[in-house]
Write a structure and sequence with these properties.
5 strands; alpha+beta; 109 residues; two-stranded antiparallel sheet
Length: 109
């Protein structure tokens, strides 16, 4: 499957995917993620998220981070919408390595 939103995405069936989602307002105005074959653009985008001096950091609160982690685990274990390989909850974003069992767009809802 190939689709275009902000960036082109290619989603081979039954393949693991690396997904990052972030809190709204966590990047300075004007920052955009551009694609690059070597991943440098993603690394820069992630560095900016990690070093964000402004914007929400709700997941610094252990209760919020725990709720996010539990939701991720529940999606895999109870709802069986994905196979969870690894994840990390950061103060303002989350990284997931999953194999979706339903279309990725539905998985991310």
């Amino acid at each position: 499957m190939f689709y275009r939103r902000n960036l082109p995405h290619w989603l081979p069936e039954s393949a693991a995917v690396f997904v990052t989602f972030r809190l709204r307002g966590t990047l300075p105005a004007g920052v955009r993620l551009l694609s690059s074959p070597d991943g440098q653009a993603f690394a820069e985008f992630d560095r900016q998220l990690d070093q964000a001096a402004t914007g929400p950091k709700y997941m610094l609160d252990p209760a919020v981070a725990s709720a996010v982690a539990e939701t991720v685990r529940e999606a895999a274990a109870e709802k069986r919408i994905c196979e969870l390989h690894a994840f990390v909850v950061m103060p303002n974003h989350v990284h997931l390595l999953i194999t979706p069992k339903i279309p990725l767009a539905r998985t991310m809802n």
